[in-house]
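PROTEIN DESIGN WORKSHEET
SECTION A - STRUCTURE
LENGTH: 560
TOKENS:
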């Protein structure tokens, strides 16, 4: 009884996660066979022994053994997000991307959480472009971000550009200056930094409002050159929170804006724009990443000085995948030097890269929502995302054979014929045809493990007895019987193909991993010729793959 329970759960754990974990298995074993707690030493020894046995099986063998057991289908109840103070029909959230790069998994978390909150409370979603830094932003990123949001299956009700609200922000800036809550500062950046470090306000902070307003006008009309002056908030120079020590609110930037061109030369910093636009545009529950937590005090302080409504901020931890950096500073040289295919390289956690790898939008949504609204930092590895993706792909993917590094096998007695197999063993997706002759090809690793005289099965075809082993193999038909070893194969009509497998982009030293994209060449079924670029399939005993190119030969990207 206990051995059977242990085997059942070890097999399931190994099937779901690639390798069974004793800590994950033991709880399920105890739940089904509680008496095993009386001798946990023996129980753990049995679990370890079964894990060692199952680790030697391939996925097909594991699945075959699992068919002997019945598994209760786990119903996953998705927890609805509960937001303090949120009222149904009155919630307004925003996606606040800056158009300065390609959207990535970190954006997906913030976007999806905002979407989930709006959905939960029947609220509205605004796509708000935080485009007030002309030095970093480009029009090309607008479509990339829009496409990424749509691909995730998210939507929005209204679109706004912060750069369209510059005149409104100018008026609010003048209000602060007139109130004596902001001043024009002509100090150098070094002088400002030194003053903030020493908690000492510069002489500019003692000027009268009229003088500050006059200098503000000169900033606007071009009388003062870039770098010649800034507008700073009168915060609290004695605060232990350095953010509050008279932060910069506006600065002169003469780089043409991707959208406004040269219409404006004075631009707000994010500290001003982010808080003001949340309030002015009616955002009720803005999501802000944990890195801005120290700036929340400034956010509230500024809005109070302006007499503006203070939204209910929601703070979340940023999300990144281990060894899959999102830093443009690090990635741009890899793209520009050709080490990466582009920003949609399947090794990258950009949304375009995840799509090209074959990660489904639903898998990403489920993945990021699993972290909920939490400030706990997380850096999961790829497997945490891929587990959910496999579960989604399994029932919808057609199956084909793939023979990596093929070795020729001549089978005496095998006649030339055409056979039909199901496209999916569990779902009616139609049939596929395979042509057969006495020359077939099997994977190199399987060929190397065979012994002369051994009987094995060419999957869904016939049993073969290996007669002679060399650079190529010779065999003969064997009577049908139950055999454990079942091999993928290819024969007439086979197609040359290549499967590219993404690995971690960075090595243990944090440097570019030269082996981050491994290529496996082989043969696949002739039916793969009818696939379209972007189609997802399962190569049996190999994994899920996405067709990436049809250029002379088929090129797939290994998904999971």
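SECTION B - SEQUENCE
RESIDUE ASSIGNMENT:
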């Amino acid at each position: 009884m206990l051995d059977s329970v242990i085997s059942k759960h070890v097999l399931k754990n190994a099937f779901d996660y690639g390798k069974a974990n004793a800590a994950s298995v033991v709880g399920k074993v105890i739940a089904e066979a509680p008496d095993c707690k009386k001798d946990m030493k023996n129980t753990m020894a049995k679990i370890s022994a079964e894990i060692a046995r199952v680790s030697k099986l391939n996925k097909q063998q594991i699945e075959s053994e699992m068919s002997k057991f019945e598994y209760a289908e786990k119903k996953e109840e998705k927890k609805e997000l509960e937001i303090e103070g949120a009222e149904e029909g009155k919630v307004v959230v925003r996606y606040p991307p800056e158009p300065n790069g390609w959207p990535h998994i970190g954006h997906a978390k913030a976007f999806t959480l905002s979407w989930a909150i709006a959905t939960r409370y029947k609220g509205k979603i605004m796509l708000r472009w935080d485009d007030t830094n002309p030095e970093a932003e480009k029009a090309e990123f607008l479509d990339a971000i829009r496409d990424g949001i749509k691909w995730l299956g998210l939507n929005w009700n209204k679109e706004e550009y912060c750069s369209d609200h510059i005149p409104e922000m100018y008026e609010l800036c003048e209000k602060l200056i007139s109130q004596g809550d902001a001043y024009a500062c002509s100090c150098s950046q070094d002088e400002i930094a030194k003053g903030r470090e020493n908690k000492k306000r510069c002489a500019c902070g003692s000027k009268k409002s009229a003088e500050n307003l006059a200098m503000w006008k000169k900033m606007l009309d071009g009388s003062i050159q870039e770098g010649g002056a800034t507008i700073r908030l009168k915060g609290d120079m004695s605060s232990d929170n350095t953010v509050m020590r008279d932060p910069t609110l506006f600065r002169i930037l003469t780089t043409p804006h991707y959208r406004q061109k040269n219409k404006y030369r004075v631009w707000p910093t994010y500290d001003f724009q982010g808080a003001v636009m949340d309030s002015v545009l009616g955002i009720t529950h803005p999501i802000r990443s944990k890195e801005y937590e120290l700036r929340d005090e400034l956010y509230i302080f500024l809005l109070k000085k302006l007499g503006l409504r203070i939204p209910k901020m929601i703070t979340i931890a940023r999300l990144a995948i281990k060894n899959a950096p999102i830093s443009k500073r690090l990635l741009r040289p890899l793209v520009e030097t050709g080490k990466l295919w582009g920003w949609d390289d399947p090794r990258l956690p950009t949304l375009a890269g995840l799509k090209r790898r074959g990660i489904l939008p639903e898998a990403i949504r489920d993945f990021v929502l699993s972290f909920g609204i939490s400030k706990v930092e997380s850096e999961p590895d790829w497997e945490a995302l891929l587990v959910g993706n496999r579960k989604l792909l399994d029932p919808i993917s057609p199956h084909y054979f793939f023979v990596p590094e093929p070795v020729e096998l001549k089978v005496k007695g095998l006649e030339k014929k055409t056979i039909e197999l199901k496209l999916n063993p569990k779902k009616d997706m139609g049939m596929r045809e395979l042509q057969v002759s006495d020359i077939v090809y099997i994977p190199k690793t399987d060929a190397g493990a065979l012994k002369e005289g051994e009987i094995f099965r060419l999957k869904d075809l016939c049993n073969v007895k290996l007669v002679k082993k060399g650079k190529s193999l010779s065999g003969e038909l064997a009577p049908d019987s139950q055999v454990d070893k079942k091999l993928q194969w290819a024969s007439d009509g086979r197609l040359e193909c290549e499967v590219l497998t993404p690995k971690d982009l960075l090595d243990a030293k944090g440097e570019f991993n030269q082996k981050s994209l491994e290529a496996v060449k082989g043969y696949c079924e002739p039916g793969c010729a009818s696939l379209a670029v972007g189609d997802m399939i399962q190569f049996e005993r190999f994994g899920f793959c996405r067709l990436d190119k049809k250029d002379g030969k088929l090129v797939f990207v290994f998904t999971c």
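SECTION C - NOTES
Residues 2-66 form one domain.
The chain has 16 helices and 24 strands.
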